[in-house]
Design brief:
16 strands; alpha+beta; Nucleoside Triphosphate Pyrophosphohydrolase; 3 domains; six-stranded mixed sheet; disordered N terminus; globular; 5 helices; about 30% strand
Length: about 300
């Protein structure tokens, strides 16, 4: 698996909206600050329980398909909702807009990439959580073991089968993403960047892939790099992580050292890959992605 990262925002009812993709740049540190400057607990408070004592503003994230429209009033009280958490002293709820219902945003709902550009980091995280919770509930209406309709599991975030007792919890798919470097730290050190087959526009990013059953994160780094570009790497060290709601990944970022091998690309995954110096980077992902943050950290390291 090979993925970049991109952008999104909040829109109020009736306001015009402009969708913007964060500009890609070969110059790290341009325009946007890194998304992962804080951990998620600094930005908002996810909760699985109804905020019974909350007396502040209520916000409703209407999930239209996989896009979001946020309002202080729920469009239809009969629609399923899920508590998301507290964002800047406001209680946020996810609302599942049925596919056959009238669009409460009148076309103003934004996909999560677009919402990033008009929201705070905490609002964007909450919106991503809302989309994941709604999609989880949509796809777990029936038991995967016996097909009985499920119901909420008391006291936890789960959908329980009343017949066989199977409980389905929200899915989180761990995926490693790594920046591989070769050479001694300093201006002549190079980083491996690659262009994936699924990139909609020319862009070079870090290698990434899902963790397999029975595999630790560091092992996933070594395996994925070998599979995708044919290189052996070592000295794998953790840097940071990022929830990535496309659709339900947790990106875990690493730095690894090149050990040996020549570039041999997995053609169904990688279009191109090469080594780049800090002062000669190709177009790279925008600041929303952990990939960009790994690249920026390397560029800013004086070595």
């Amino acid at each position: 698996m090979f993925r970049p990262g991109w952008v999104q925002t909040e829109v109020a009812r009736g306001e015009p909206c402009v969708l913007r993709m964060s500009a890609m740049s070969s110059q790290p540190n341009s325009r946007e600050p890194a998304v992962a400057a804080h951990n998620t607990s600094d930005l908002y408070a996810p909760t699985n329980d109804h905020p019974a004592g909350h007396r502040g503003v209520q916000k409703y994230i209407h999930v239209v398909g996989s896009s979001v429209f946020i309002d202080t009033v729920i469009a239809d009280d009969s629609w399923d909702r899920h508590v998301v958490g507290i964002v800047q002293e406001e209680a946020w709820w996810a609302v599942d807009v049925p596919p056959d219902a009238e669009d409460p945003s009148y076309g103003a709902a934004l996909d999560l990439y677009s919402y990033h550009g008009r929201s705070s980091p905490g609002e964007w995280l909450a919106a991503g959580r809302a989309v994941q919770l709604v999609e989880w509930a949509r796809t777990h209406r029936f038991c995967g073991r016996c097909a009985t309709p499920t119901e909420p599991s008391p006291g936890e975030r789960g959908m329980k089968c009343p017949a066989c007792g199977l409980i389905a919890y929200p899915r989180v798919a761990p995926a490693m993403i790594t920046l591989v470097t070769r050479g001694e730290p300093g201006p002549d050190q190079e980083a491996l960047l690659a262009r994936g087959t699924n990139f909609p526009i020319p862009m070079y990013s870090c290698l990434a892939g899902f963790v397999e059953p029975g595999e630790d994160l560091e092992g996933a780094v070594v395996r994925e790099v070998a599979e995708e570009v044919g290189l052996d790497v070592g000295n794998v060290r953790y840097l940071q992580s990022q929830p990535w709601p496309f659709p339900h990944s947790l990106m875990i970022g690493f730095h690894a050292d090149y050990l040996s091998g020549d570039l041999v690309l997995q053609e169904d995954e990688i279009v191109d890959a090469n080594w780049y110096r800090k002062d000669d980077l190709p177009p790279i992902p925008p600041a929303i992605s952990v990939a960009r943050q790994l690249i920026d950290a390397w560029v800013n390291d004086p070595g």
